[in-house]
Amino acid sequence: MVRWLTLCLLVILALMPVSASAHKPSDSYLSLEVSGERIEGQWDIALRDLEFAIGLDGNGDGAISWTELQARHTAISAYALARLRVSAGAADCALTPGEQLVDTHSDGVYAVLRFAASCAAPAQSIEVDYSLFFDLDPQHRGLLQLTAGGQTQTVIFAPAAATQSLELGQVDLLRQGLEFAVNGVWHIWIGFDHVLFLLTLLLPAVFLRRARTWEPVGDFRAAFGQVLKIVTAFTLAHSITLTLAALGAIDLPTRLVESVIAASVVIAALNNIYPVVTRRLWLVAFAFGLVHGLGFASVLVDLGLPPGALVLALLSFNVGVEVGQLAIVAAFLPLAYLARDWRFYPRGGLQVGSALVVVVASVWLFERALNVALPVL
Amino acid sequence: MTNCKNDTFPPTPFRRGAFTLRRPIIKPVRRIFISALVAAAVLNPTAAAAEPFRPTSGDQILERLPKAGDAATRELRHLRAKLNETPNDLELARTLAKRYIGLGRAEADPRYYGYAEAALKPWVNLAAPPVEVRVLRAVLKQNRHDFDGALDDLAQTLAAKPKHAQALLTQAFVLQVQGRYADARRSCRALPRGVHPLIVVTCVARIESLTGRSDTGYGLLKRGLANWTDADRGLRLWAFTNLGEIAQRRGDVIAAERHFRDGLDLGRRDAYLRGAYADLLLDSGRAQEARDFLADDTRIDGLLLRLTLAEARLGDPAAQDHRALLEARFAASRARGSVIHRREEARFTLEILERPAAALALAEANWQAQREPADVRLVLAAALAAGVPDRAQPALDWLRKTGLRDRQIDRLTARLEGEAS
């Protein structure tokens, strides 16, 4: 009879349909952000799991208060960090516990343990060995989000997959390059000063200056040739200074650089109205291109140059800038070429257009040189 | 509930200082750019919106522990401590594992199944564990919807002990979930004499009701419950739950409600029964009662789903928060690579998000794994709502083959046939 009843008990629980489950199972959320040999970590661990493992409910009232949790902070970091091993290269990284907070996840409140890992060498690949709660609940999972070089990888730890290696370098090179290239394109498009400078130089490219008058060029090839020279010179110049500045070889005050950039636009526009340089416009493009390159560099530095992929980042960013530039030229040139015979082009397009540019760029120059914002723009 | 959205991961640290605003002229443009990037980070399901915080008062209660302080929990803790000292004590390990499995079922909480597995640690990963551990391992596999794995363990067990009651019963259940009714019936019938007759009757009656013989199944189980009033409360609860479901399949809502209530009146917490009763209320347009009934059941996803449905029907603003909470839980479940929420997620997508095309895809994937009436019903309803009745054809063919009759399913079938003609 006794045997009968125990059999019943087990039998019933096995048979009852279970598909109506469930709570969320036990998970922890680990995030690691790698920068060189330093790794910033954050680990969200469910209070319920910590209670089961090491006990949090000091007064045994079935509720965990902030005071009770605080009293266990040392125990929590000791328990958790003893169950995490991060290594870069062959050596383990030292884990140092930091601040502890709390956070609400969809299934309850989690302790948030911040920590730092310092490794002997900059990490190219890291190995993470995770064993939290696996002895207590083999269905527990550790969900890692690893960020390095702007790229994020996710990994799930389980008892059968407790140790995992993550490559930081190779995998993300392509993506990283693309990211910098996109930033380059984006920067030229929203960098109105660069665009305006280029367009100002290109405005007279469909003419030849002869005897103090503008004569339309004969064919598209001639126009294209002039444009090509200008764009190439600009590109070459700003690539040189961009590289030098990004590598730290030149370091000029941003305010000065930005002001000179604005001035370059003013000068280029004035040159269209009162032509001084008419033959070798590419020289102007080159000279001021050097300054514009310094402007690009400040963006690149702001983006954060990945130490492992410096050349790639520089190259990709440059390529991006070029692509963005070429798109602008490709849109401008056919229009200007078609309009070159138009009677009003020299006066309406070139003169008035350039005059407008002078006004806009002068405002920039004023703002940047004096570090003020004018309400007009 | 703003803290609960997208919190699969703590916030992705956004590249700091990436976009220093330096030149006034392009500020607005950059601002748009930054907003777009931030939006992208937030929309990324593994990124997050929640921000860790420091509670302002020490008295602030952060978490209430389920089942804390009751006698059973204390006893389990005691058993666990004992097992820690003698981890190779098979008898003790089995006892503890069974207790945890029971708790896991009552609370629909997978953590307890994990604790059960941990108790069986010295044996649970062996290629050929002791028979008693193997059966428990099958139960655990079934609970995480590894049905084939469970059947494999059960077959091995039965090869060694053909009359193993637990193995036969678990096997009958898993086969039933997979819709293999003939095999399931054989498994029920093979149950040995020592087993309580109400178990055999419930096992058989359930299969009868799923193969077009609801009347037979209903009569059988009703008589069984009347005959064996001495049965253990847990067993009676399970039998009442099945009886209620069979009555519902037959379209007798009044009887179904009475049986569910009989089960609830036994005073044992049972997440499955609560869900079944809530469904009955929802199906009968009694959303208000459903909401009151489930008011405290927000921890269990399946019950929270029904609560949210009730709230949505009543125009209760709480539905918004609960909906976000469910979305976050499903996202978290996907992030860990779990599949056990497929049925709930399909229903959620269909009835709460009202995205029938997506719901249909989920329902179809779920139907590949589970074929209980609720799973078939989801495929049919989603195919109807999505306006692609053809996609219901495999399910309709299967219904015809098995002879499954269910009032709710029959209604959907009739509508699908109406659309076809």
Which regions of chain B contain 5 or more consecutive residues with pLDDT less than 50? 1-49
Q: How many strand elements of chain B?
A: 1
Number of domains of chain A: 2
How much helix, percentage-wise, in residues of chain A? Answer: 40-55%
The number of helices of chain B is 22
State the end-to-end CA separation of chain B. Answer: 47 Å
Uncertain runs of chain A are: 1-9
* Cα end-to-end separation of chain A: 91 Å
Quaternary structure annotation: heterodimer
Radius of gyration of chain A, in Å, reads: 32 Å
Largest interface: A-B, 86 and 106 residues
| Major sheet strand order of chain A | 6-7-2-1-9-10
Mean pLDDT of chain B: 85
Question: How would you characterize the overall build of this protein?
Answer:
The complex is a heterodimer of chains A (377) and B (421). By secondary structure, chain A is of the alpha+beta class. In chain A, 51% of the residues lie in helices and 23% in strands. The longest helix of chain A has 30 residues, at 310-339. Chain A is elongated and about 95 Å long. In chain A, 48% of the residues are buried. Chain B is mainly α and 421 residues long. Chain B has helices at residues 27-43, 71-85, 90-107, 110-119, 121-124, 131-143, 147-160, 165-177, 181-189, 197-210, 214-227, 233-249, 253-264, 271-283, 287-294, 301-314, 318-335, 342-352, 356-369, 373-385, 393-402, 407-420, and one strand spanning 61-64. Helices cover 68% and strands 1% of the residues of chain B. The model of chain B is unreliable at 1-49 (pLDDT under 50).
